Amino acid sequence: MDLSFTDEDRAFRSAVRAWLRYNIPATERPADAAGARAWDMAWQRRQFDGGYGGIAWPREYGGQGLPLVRQLIWFEEYARADGPDIGCGFVGINHGGPTLIARGSEEQKRRHLPKILAGEEVWCQGFSEPGAGSDLAAISARAFIEGNELVVNGQKIWTSYAHVADYQELLVRTDPDSARHRGLTWVICDMHSPGITVRPIISMDGLAEFCEVFYDDVRLPLDNVVGEIGDGWSVAMSTLGFERGTGFIKLQTELAVALERLNEDAASLGLLEDSGLRAMLGDLHADVVAMRAMTYATVSSAARADVPGPEGSMIKIFYGDLAQRIHRARMDVIGVYGLDRGGRYGRDIGEYLYSYATTVGGGTSEVQRDIVGERILGLPRNR
User: Fold this and answer.
1) What range defines the domain where residue 33 resides?
2) Which residue among 6, 214, 219, 341 is least crowded, i.e. fewest CB within 10 A of its CB?
3) Which segments does the entry list as coiled coil (predicted)?
4) Domain presence at residue 109
5) Beta-carbon neighbour count of residue 278 at 10 Å?
6) pTM for the full predicted model
7) Is a pLDDT exceeding 70 seen at residue 303?
């Protein structure tokens, strides 16, 4: 690992800390879908206007063109300032946009990247299907070429923010005789196209973030294909590399902050006399430090490559388990207070419930272990 902070980096950290202190929204994010989208995009626009949108994105597409270490600094300070969740900007900012930077055409980059950064476009992901969740190679949504268009039919599920999205990173099977990884195509789908039906899904935390999406002869221009027809698996691996790799920089810092809050609350409730609790908090702290080291190593590696490697799967495995243990420990500490979702600890019960998704979303931990075994350790393929 080769990662250090220069005097310029430290000055950047101070500037970020000051900017966040005066700019983090004071209003609550609305609960309704339209209001939440408007709120998320207004906050994204404020970051963009302040010079903190797309810190490591190329300047020619609206970014700042700064080293990836500056993005790491931003995420660390953002988490410590308790900045709001990225919300419906997640897909566009964290892996849709980076995928276009790495694999998109010049026209696709210039058309979409500045609007993503400026809070003018919301993206969602169309990968998972009812019969192909973690086993992405089993997707069956199909598209055939007719003239200069792709005609799409099928279904996607667990599509975050599809009900408010403008575009979708969509993976479809374009070769009807292909199987598994072959014959797939990654295409930009306009979510306002005729033939698209979106149905929100209410999850156990009471939110309707996820959706089902149905496609009935949806026509998309061939110019929207990212990469080549039939090369979608390669492009999708780029997308998942960003999702599982650099996309976790902010999340690991948020876990560290969550653990600090947990220690503070345990002390205020007079629970630190319990030696068992102290030992558990010590173990969690050691794991947070270990995850920070893993994240720094990933940033160091990603700074020398266009697309993060399979090492991101190790971070995802570790993060999912650690997030669940930290939020479960928080429920143990606050006890019955966690039952009042409208009270002081209402946010904590929501985070606890959502933590169950961390070992499933973006590929289950079991699939990630297969990736680590095969692509990093060189073990035989799991048949």
Assistant:
1) 7-85
2) 6
3) none
4) no
5) 14
6) 0.79
7) no
- The pair phi, psi for residue 215, each rounded to 5°, is -120, 125
For 278, list phi and psi in degrees, rounded to 5: -60, -40
pLDDT (tens digit per residue) in 227-253: 989 888 888 777 666 554 555 667 777
- Active site residue ranges: 243
In a domain? residue 111:
no
- Measured CA to CA, the distance from residue 186 to residue 173 in angstroms comes to 9
Q: Are strands 167-173 and 123-126 parallel, antiparallel or unpaired?
A: parallel
Name the residue with tokens 């939110």.
207
- Which of 58, 85, 112 is the C-terminal boundary of a domain? 85
Nearest to 116 by CA among 81, 86, 143, 142: 86
User: Residue 376: its pLDDT value, please?
Assistant: 73
Q: How far is CA 308 from the centre of its chain?
A: 14
- d(Cα 262, Cα 257) in Å, to the nearest integer? 9
pLDDT tens, residue by residue, 48-98: 999 999 998 999 999 999 988 888 889 889 988 989 989 999 999 988 998
